[in-house]
Structures are given as structure tokens and as C-alpha cells.
Design brief:
With about 260 residues, the chain is of the alpha/beta class. The protein is built from eight helices and seven strands; from the N terminus they run βαβαβαβαβαβαααβ. Strand 1 (about 15-20), helix 1 (about 25-35) and strand 2 (about 40-45) form a beta-alpha-beta unit. Helix 1 (about 25-35) crosses helix 8 (about 225-235). The protein binds nicotinamide-adenine-dinucleotide.
């Protein structure tokens, strides 16, 4: 039972690996996890970005280079995790490739764009999960959170992002597979599906018109901020989330709940 003075989300003593650790959402997540008592490893193909974010967070965070689509690189990451942490409590599958300019509708998208998106988002997330899960199982269990997308649940009516959306939809199944298969060995696995989140990258890449449309589409008076995703993930990996597994949690301002008519 909760005591009045109990902190709802407490990550004290937990070791957490975040892929795509050099990106906008990971920077916020890493800082929150460390604030809540965890040790965090940020892994990114952009090693400098991961290192810089870890440096800004300070003690408790480390950055490392890793291309999740490359099996050798992932094996190296797993060895580092093993040596550095010994045990691992949570994996956040957050790295993603999104080719905003060239990932269009099915007829307009090059095979190379499709292949790279699948290679990173799907193959890469599979490789990392497969390499890290045994460390978690040997440690008595843990939590996996796979960051998917609203676009992996309902395709945009504009017909954009066929590769990205399809890769994220497939990741929902990977997240459920993990939940169903390893649940009795203490593994919880959930997917978090963000809607439009005002990261620096989003604000820099989306036009004012597109942002205004996104603001109009959500049910809340505002678009989400990185901490909206971090808070949800922190809850899921904490002991407060211990009965939540096999779910897709939409953190999207309810954008898919109503019809835009
Ligand atoms: N920001 C949003 O509005 C939003 C919306 C829906 C879903 N998401 C998802 O949230 C997650 C984080 O998004 P973000 O906004 O922080 O994006 P971001 O582009 O800032 O971060 C993604 C990170 O993944 C890294 N990455 C790409 N390929 C990699 C590879 N092969 N190996 C290792 N790392 C690689 C990139 O270098 C980057 O640092 C992604 O999975 C994204 O699809 C974000």
C-alpha cells in the first residue's frame, strides 16, 4: 500500500539504457531518470550528441556510440552494459530513423528510404532488445519501453511517412511479443506512442502552418512537451507501473480520439 510520504515514481538504484540517446526526447528522459535516482546510458549513432547530453546531465549519465542497425555494434553495446552496470533494469527503445523529406506515400517512396527506415527502426530495435533482454532476465526481470508513434497507429491522411509508420506499427507487435513471451520471467514490455511533441527538432522542421494544424487537432489546449513522454516512461519503468504490460499508451493529446469533420 502507498504510504503518504512515498514518492510515486522512484528509480533509485535502477540502471537504464536509452537508445537514440543523442536526441531530443532522450535528453529530457535521461535528465528525469537521473533526477529520480537512476543511472543512465545514452547510446546513439551520433556519439558526440550522446556524450554531450550525458555531460550536461552530469553524474549518473554516460554516453556511448552505437549503430543499432549494426549487429556488431549492438553486441559491443551489450558487452559495455554488462561490464558497466552488471545488471540492467530497463531498456528504452527510443532510437529512430525518420526521413522527413523522402518518406512519402507508397508510390512515391524509394526502396532505399524504406530499407534504411526498416533497418534502423525495426531491425535495430530487434537487435538491441535481443541483446539486452538476457541481461534483464538474468537479473530477475525488468521493463522495456519501445517508443513508437501515433503514425504507427493511424496513418496521416496526407499519406506521408509510409516507411516510418509501418516500422512503428511493427514495433508495437515486437513490444507485445516481448510482453507475452517473457512476462513470467519478470519482463514487462510496453509501447509509448507520442503524438506531435514540441522538441527543438520538431519546432525547427515543421512549418508554422503545420504546427498550428497540429495544435488544432489535439484535444488539449497545447501540444505535448518532451517531459510528457519522459513522465509516462518513468512511470512505466518504475515499480508503480508493475502491473502494466503489453500495452500501447498514446501520449498524443487525444488526437486520435475524435474525428476531424
Ligand atoms: N518528437 C516527436 O514529436 C515524436 C513523435 C512521435 C514519435 N517520436 C519518436 O520518439 C523517439 C525520439 O524522437 P526524437 O524526437 O527525440 O527524435 P531525434 O531525431 O531527436 O532522436 C532520435 C535519435 O535516434 C538516433 N539514431 C538514428 N539512427 C540511429 C541508429 N542507427 N543507431 C542509434 N541511434 C540512431 C539519432 O541520431 C537521434 O539522436 C523516436 O523513436 C521517434 O520516432 C517522436
Amino acid at each position: 500500500m502507498n504510504g503518504a510520504a512515498t514518492k510515486l515514481i522512484d528509480l533509485t538504484g535502477k540502471s537504464i539504457l536509452v537508445t537514440g540517446g543523442g536526441g531530443g526526447l532522450a535528453a529530457d528522459m535521461g535528465a528525469l531518470f537521473v533526477d529520480l535516482g537512476a543511472r543512465v546510458l545514452l547510446a546513439d549513432i551520433a556519439e558526440d550528441a550522446a556524450m554531450a547530453i550525458a555531460g550536461r546531465i552530469g553524474a549518473g549519465a554516460k554516453g556511448i556510440g552505437c549503430d543499432i542497425s549494426d549487429e556488431r555494434s549492438v553486441e559491443k553495446l551489450a558487452r559495455f552494459v554488462s561490464a558497466e552496470f552488471g545488471a540492467i533494469d530497463a531498456l528504452i527503445n527510443n532510437a529512430a530513423h525518420a526521413d522527413i523529406a523522402a518518406d512519402l506515400d507508397l508510390l512515391a517512396t524509394d526502396t532505399a528510404v524504406w530499407d534504411r527506415t526498416m533497418q534502423v527502426n525495426l531491425r535495430g530495435t530487434m537487435l538491441v532488445s535481443r541483446a539486452i533482454l538476457p541481461l534483464m532476465i538474468n537479473n530477475g526481470g525488468g521493463a522495456v519501453v519501445t517508443v513508437v508513434s501515433r503514425q504507427g497507429i493511424a496513418p496521416p491522411l496526407s499519406g506521408m511517412r509510409v516507411a516510418y509508420g509501418t516500422s512503428k506499427a511493427a514495433l508495437v507487435m515486437l513490444a507485445r511479443h516481448i510482453a507475452v513471451t517473457y512476462g513470467k520471467r519478470g519482463i514487462r514490455s510496453n509501447a509509448v506512442a507520442p503524438g506531435t511533441i514540441e522538441t527543438e527538432r520538431m519546432l525547427a522542421t515543421l512549418s508554422q502552418e503545420r504546427l498550428a494544424q497540429s495544435r488544432a487537432n489535439v484535444l488539449t489546449p497545447y501540444l505535448g512537451a518532451p517531459e510528457d513522454i519522459s513522465n509516462c516512461i518513468a512511470f512505466l519503468v518504475s515499480d508503480a507501473g508493475r502491473y502494466i504490460t503489453g500495452q500501447v499508451i498514446q501520449v498524443d493529446g487525444g488526437v486520435l480520439t475524435g474525428l476531424h469533420e
